[in-house]
Amino acid sequence: MSETKMRLEDWLDDLCVRFIINLPREELESVERICFQVEEAQWFYEDFIRPLDPNLPSLSLRAFALRIFQHCPLMSQWSHYHHSTAFSEFLAYKTRVPVRGAILLNQDMDEVVLVKGWKKNANWSFPRGKINKDEKDLDCAIREVYEETGFDIKAAGLVKDEKKMKYIEIPMREQNMRLYVLRDIPRNTIFEPRTRKEISKIEWYKLSELPTLKKSKQIETNGHNLSNKFYMVAPFLGPLKKWIAQQKRADLAATQNTDSNVQETSGNGLLVEEDEGLSANEPSPKEDTTKFSFLVTSPKFLHWRILLFT
């Protein structure tokens, strides 16, 4: 047995103890939960152990899982067929685990934050990830956005009661994906992933430049594959643009109502410049006719006193 293989066996011992053997009994009775821990062990091996010794082989998740299955006392009694079957069932199960994340919009709601995976041919997507066991939907979204972008949406004051949070939910294959929609993210926000070798790029993208499902079909027909890089984004763009249009109409209505209220208040009052006061020839208003007074600051006139009379 070579020295490198001995070192690999030693590391497998360490990983079995660190990630599998000490699991609670109820998780050890679930093949899916064991496989999730095997996946965590593989990430740890690639991110932290291999950099210490470049002679250690890089192992795909499947190759790593089969080695762990054979090495770990809890699973070594399984046959090779059972090892392969367990891994295949785990991959199928992973595609059904719900995904939660967020759509981060700038203040004008015409740009979104997208993240790109680590691998060379990785696609772009909204920051999101699989929900953990017993984790709440919104908590998962907060965690995943922070892990992939370094942006804490809760600390930024963007998280409300979950019932008041807008989200878009779409089934993709057998997987349920829910993305919470958050607006007014400062354009100068600094993004930096908190996970290793998972996110390679974080960028703002203009909504108008992203391929929708309809545009994707047209691009594929012409033989271009650019839309494939955004296939995880495209299904959300239609509902997102409708929501943005609603928000802009609501913002406009709120602004018009505010302007209308100011004009109505001004029309019912008598405006007098505070610096000038009342001239000596003008009669002073009777004390009992004054309802109340307050100051209004205007870009054109510094201070005005509004006197409302009964």
Topology overview:
Layout: H1 3-21, H2 25-28, H3 31-49, H4 61-71, H5 80-94, E1 99-104, E2 111-117, E3 124-125, E4 128-130, H6 137-149, E5 167-172, E6 175-182, E7 199-206, H7 213-221, H8 234-267, E8 270-273, E9 290-296, E10 304-309
- Sheet-strand content, in percent, reads 15-25%
Distance N terminus to C terminus? 100 Å
Spatial order of the strands forming the largest sheet: 4-1-6-5
CATH-derived topology of the largest domain: Nucleoside Triphosphate Pyrophosphohydrolase
Structural class computed from helices and strand pairing: alpha+beta
> What top-tier CATH class of the largest domain fits best?
Alpha Beta
Multimeric state of these chains? single chain
Mean pLDDT: 80
Please state the CA-atom Rg, rounded to the nearest Å.
30 Å
Element-level helix/strand string: HHHHHEEEEHEEEHHEEE
Structure description:
With 310 residues, this protein is α+β, with helices and mostly antiparallel strands. It folds into three domains: 3-94, Arc Repressor Mutant, subunit A; 99-246, Alpha-Beta Complex (Nucleoside Triphosphate Pyrophosphohydrolase), CATH 3.90.79; 268-309, no CATH class. Helix content is 40%, strand content 18%. It has a four-stranded mixed beta sheet. Strands 3-2-7 form a three-stranded antiparallel beta sheet, with no helix packed on it. Strand 9 (290-296) and strand 10 form a beta hairpin. The radius of gyration is 30 Å and the shape is elongated. The model is unreliable at 216-224 and 265-310 (pLDDT under 50). Belongs to the Nudix hydrolase family. DCP2 subfamily.
